Structures are given as structure tokens and as C-alpha cells.
């Protein structure tokens, strides 16, 4: 289902990580028509009825700032990352997260 969403938005989707406590995915812009990363994330959230909510991000000095989860984390090499809570899905007794990094079009 998520591969279909990625493909229809011009992205390739790959699994990485252990899949132990969350689902780690990597989306890479694959076609000339690839949409902006936030548009891909929005379509994924809609498809899985995900929950973005608010997140706390470290300021690097022991303090945290509360931000909208729609605001991506900046990662090395231009990756953007989001965490989406799967509210209608239980895994190992919890609602797991879909952690997705996106390498968007240039």
C-alpha cells in the first residue's frame, strides 16, 4: 500500500533498520515528476490514517523545543525525516511509529 503511494508521487520506497520497535523507511525521488517531500508525507499520513501530533526536539543543550511533527528533522545529505504514529495498528503491545526519511527532488 505504501509502495503504491510512493510510486504515484514519483518516489521509490525501501525498508531499512531492524523493524523491531518501529518501521524505518527511506523514500527517494525517482522520477522527474516527483512531488515535494511534504506532499508525499501528507499522502502517506492520509493513506494510513496516521497521527502527526507534536514532538519535542533537542536543542543540543539539554533543553527541548516543542514543534509540529509536520516540521521535518534535518538529516545528513539533505534527508528530511518524519515520525508518524500508527494509531489504528498495534505492534508488540504499542502503537508503533513509521519513521520515514525522504530524499526529495533537486
Considering the chains and any ligands shown, give keywords for the structure.
106 residues, alpha+beta, 2 helices, single chain, five-stranded mixed beta sheet
Summarize the structure.
The protein has 106 residues and is of the alpha+beta class.
Tell me the structural class: alpha+beta
**Range of helix content:** 10-25%
- Kindly report the spatial arrangement of strands forming the biggest sheet: 1-2-7-6-5
* Mean pLDDT across all amino acids: 86
Distance between the termini: 26 Å
Q: Identify low-pLDDT runs.
A: none
Overall radius of gyration? 14 Å
Can you give a write-up of this model?
It is globular and about 40 Å long. A hairpin with a 5-residue loop joins strand 5 (73-74) and strand 6. Helix content is 18%, strand content 37%. A five-stranded mixed beta sheet has the order 1-2-7-6-5, with helices on one face. By secondary structure, it is of the alpha+beta class. The mean pLDDT is 86. The two termini are 26 Å apart.
Give the topology, please.
Layout: H1 2-8, E1 11-16, E2 22-29, H2 37-48, E3 54-58, E4 64-68, E5 73-74, E6 80-85, E7 97-103
Parallel strand pairs: 2-7
Antiparallel strand pairs: 1-2, 3-4, 5-6, 6-7
Amino acid at each position: 500500500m505504501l509502495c503504491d503511494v510512493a510510486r504515484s508521487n514519483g518516489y521509490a520506497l525501501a525498508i531499512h533498520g531492524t523493524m523491531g520497535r518501529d518501521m524505518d523507511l527511506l523514500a527517494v525521488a525517482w522520477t522527474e515528476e516527483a512531488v515535494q517531500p511534504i506532499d508525499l508525507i501528507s499522502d502517506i499520513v492520509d493513506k494510513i490514517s496516521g497521527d502527526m501530533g507534536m514532538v519535542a526536539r533537542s536543542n543540543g543543550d539539554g533543553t527541548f523545543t516543542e514543534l509540529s511533527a509536520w516540521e521535518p528533522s534535518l538529516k545528513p545529505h539533505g534527508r528530511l525525516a518524519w515520525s508518524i504514529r500508527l494509531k489504528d495498528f498495534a505492534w508488540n503491545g504499542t502503537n508503533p511509529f513509521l519513521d520515514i526519511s525522504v530524499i526529495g527532488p533537486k
